[in-house]
Every structure is written in structure tokens, then in C-alpha cells.
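Quick sanity check, Gluconate kinase:
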Amino acid sequence: MDYMIGVDIGTTSVKTVLYDTDGKMQGYSNNLYPLYQDVPDMAEEDPEEIFSAIIDGLTTVIRKADLKNGTLHGVSFSAAMHSLILLDENHKPLTRAITWADNRAVQYADELRENGVGKQLYEKTGTPIHPMTPLSKLIWLRNEQPDLFKQARWFVGIKEYVIYKLFGVLQEDYSIANATGLFNIFKMDWDDQALQVAGITRDQLPKLVDTTDQISGMKADYAGVIGMDPNTPFIMGASDGPLANLGVDAINPGVVAVTIGTSGAVRVVTDKPKIDPKGRVFCYYLSEGRWVVGGPVNNGGIVFRWVRDQLFAPEKITAEQMKVDSYDLLTEIASKIPAGSDGLIFHPFLGGERAPIWDANARGSFFGLTRTHSRAHMVRAALEGIVYNLYTVMLALEEVVGKPSSIQATGGFARSALWRQMLADIFEQDVTIPESPEGTALGAATLGMYALGLIDDLAEVKNFIGVANVHHPNPDTFEAYRTLVPIYIRLSRQLQSEYKNIAEFQRKHPQQTTDQK
């Protein structure tokens, strides 16, 4: 048997998946690490903890491979976008990895949007202006921590740091670079204006390479621990969003991938870069002739978790005692409420928001509450609100690339029949759930197989996945959702004028944690 490994470096864990060259999973490891949130708006991770998780994951799946009677052809990487690590001249970290979820650069992102420079940069980089980006983070660090900023010799992301640790080479793939806000998607190079705005030079950044670039010659110590031939080729791979599209076979024109995990996204592949005149969607590189246009949202399954923990704590305990999944119990409760939650609307902006409003100050709200509404209404409204928000991203996407021909949906939400049906009803389109539980890792492995010549075209991913479910929209829900979605959108616009004010109040009056109370 011949093998390929896909490594998905995520926000909360590294998933390492061993595939055979028919795309069948032969081994799996999920290694967790903490997200550090010591102060408001912080979201950091320890690079060494992530690196250890990668070594552990590779070690675990290699043990499941029969390398005496087969060959490990290579390892290919996916990584979360927008991370930033400052390194000294010896390539030692001066900071933890500042993740996409870190909002401390909000002031500087706002300034870029207000002074018009942000629009100029977006039109060249395809990356919306937001505190998530390394561009905004660099401006924030330069102004708020100038001594630390001056100490830095290199500015990298987590994948680049891992590659350097393994191979002693500092390089960055086009896809990850594309998401920094510093990369010109039309010149395929670092953008001079963006570098000037950030206050850095191109010799402080890694060498740029394609997503199919190969590297070998792993340091002997690490190869020995993992149990891998040090000459095994590693493929740079891409960022997680584009690879998630690849991993669910959403790479043909008009095929949209909708993902709801902790966060969420709506994405479609095009054959060349496309920019939204209104700046609502991103454009990120996957491979030659394939670009991913779409919008990410901060608030997916994490909102469902908040509803469970804050509004349904007794039911959570009951579910644990009954040994049933607490989320299944909540969706059963929500299913008793009619579509539209009897006019209760929820804006799910519990952690600021990215697409389509790109406002880190955005805050959540229930609208339309009456005495007749119950907690059951609130849980259904929360689930609907998440999908309403994804639908507004789809509306923006349609203006840029046209109407979708089909929707492939993945993520933790795919376990819920109610949530899958909501997606079909609100989008008014068939929704297909591919049978690929780790789509991003499969995307990485597929790109790796393509880079190594094991497959001739990325489209061969269709042979690696099956179809678990197809959900058809229910016309009985159309009237409610067609009425409520426009109200949801108008409310978003009206509330946006006050998001900054309430966010500033909350920063000045930090909320006590439950333990402090």
C-alpha cells in the first residue's frame, strides 16, 4: 500500500491523517493545544506546543502505516491563515503565534479603512482589511510594542516556523502569503505599498514558493523521533480555506463550499483573481489557475456552544447523565419550533465579525423578543442566525462570481439533520454533504499527490470522496425566511453604527469571568 499524509494545522488542534493513494483514510491523530487569551481581544498560541503536536501526530500515523510493504510518498500541509510570529536573528520566537482571532489591532484596521489606504491595498492583495491580518497586526505591534518590533529579524506564520524547524529553510507558499495582506495577487510577489504601510522590508519575510513546492532533507533528530525517512518529500501545501474547497470537490466553477465548524465560510473557485468593489470577500490562491473567492465568518459552532453553556446548562448536565450528545438534545428542542422562530431574529456576532461586514466591534443581539418566546425559540433563532449570516456572504459572493450551481457543505454542523435542512431552506438550494470527515486534510493530501505526479489533475479528488446526504429545500419554509432575511440584513446595517460604542464600553469595563464572580 502506498501512502500520503495530510497535516491540518488548525486554531485549536493539529489533525494528521494518513491516506492511501486512493484517498482512503488509514490513520488519524488529533492533537490539541490551548488558545491563550490573557487580555481582552488576545488570541495566541505557543509555536512550540503546535510543533510538538505536529511531531506527535506524524509519529502516531506513521506507526499505522505498513512501510515494509508500502511507501510513504510524502507529507502535505494545510494551515490556518493570518498567524504572525516575530523571530529574532537566530530564528527564535519573540512572540507566541498571534492568530486570526486576535482583535487587538482593531484601531489600526479601522484607520486603514477610514483613510482609504485599506481599499487600495485590498484591490491589490484580495485580503479585506481587518485586525485578523498580519498587515494590521504589524502596524499594531510597531505602534504599541516598538521595542519588540525592532528586535524582530523575521516575520512569519506558523507553517513557515514549522518548516524552518524541520528543514532549516525559511519559505512561504503563495496561499499563506496571500492571506497576510502583504501579497500582490496580480504580481505574485510581496506588495511594496503594503510593506511600507506595515513598516517592514521584503528581506524580513520568507522566500515565496508555489503551493506545490517540495522540500526534503528533514533534520535527522526529528526524522528519527517520527520514524520517517528524512528524504521523504514535504509539500508546502496551502491555507486551510482553499484546501477545504479542494477536499470536498468544490473546485469547479459555480460549486460553492459552505463550512460551519467553530467558525464558518462560504467559498467558490475561479480561474483568475476576482475582487469585490465593495471589499466584502477575499480572493486567495490555491494552485495555478485556481483562486478561491469567498468570505469567512467568526461565528459558527462557537455560538451553538455558547447557547448550550449559557442558556441550557441543566440540559447539558442531563445529556451527560443520559450519555447522549448535548447538541443533539438541543437540536431536538429547536426542531419543535417553526421556521423563523416565530419572528425572533438573532445576530450571532459574539466574537466580532468578518464577512460580510468586516467589523471586529460587532456584537450579538436578539431582536423581536416577546413574552411568548421561550429558550427553545432562542436556540432555533441562534442556529438560523448563523445560517442567515452565511447567506449574506453568499449574496455578496453572487455579485462577484454569479449564482452557484451547487452547494457542498461540511463541518461539525453536518452532523445535525436540522441544521443541514436549515441551510437548504434559507439558501433555497440543494445541499450535498460529502462523505469526507477531514476535508481540509484530504485537500492537503490531494494537492500533495498532484505535486508528486501521483494524480494528473486536482479534479481527481472526486474519486476520493463519497456523498453522505443530499438535502432539498422545503418550500413550506420559504415565506418565513424570505420575510425575515431582509429584516436581518437591514438590522445589521442599522446596528453597525453603534457596535463601536458598545465595544468601547465593554473594553473599558471588562466583564468578570464566572470564577471571579
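Posting the structure with no commentary besides this: The mean pLDDT is 95.
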